[in-house]
Write a structure and sequence with these properties.
This protein has a single domain, classed as Immunoglobulins (Immunoglobulin-like, Sandwich), CATH 2.60.40. The chain is about 5% helix and about 35% strand. Strands 1, 2, 3, 4 and 5 form a 5-stranded antiparallel β-sheet that branches. The protein is globular and about 45 Å long. The termini are far apart.
Length: about 80
Amino acid sequence: MYELEWKEVQAPWEAAAGSSSVTATGSGKTKTVATNLTPGTSYNIRISVVAGGTKGPSGPEMIIDTEQVGCTPRQKKGCIIL
């Protein structure tokens, strides 16, 4: 079993604990969807193994950016580039 956690880059992990995690099970390829993300926001994500009810150490953190609403490769209207 795995636990995927995400939080806005500026927020501490403690503030995000439990409120933004999804547990996924499976062998081989596992697909997990992060929900309730805000468009145009940067997030830290990390994953941990959960075995026997015990959560292991988290793997390396990754920073991702969500796209602006209406800002796609086909439609540039509404894009804000910083």
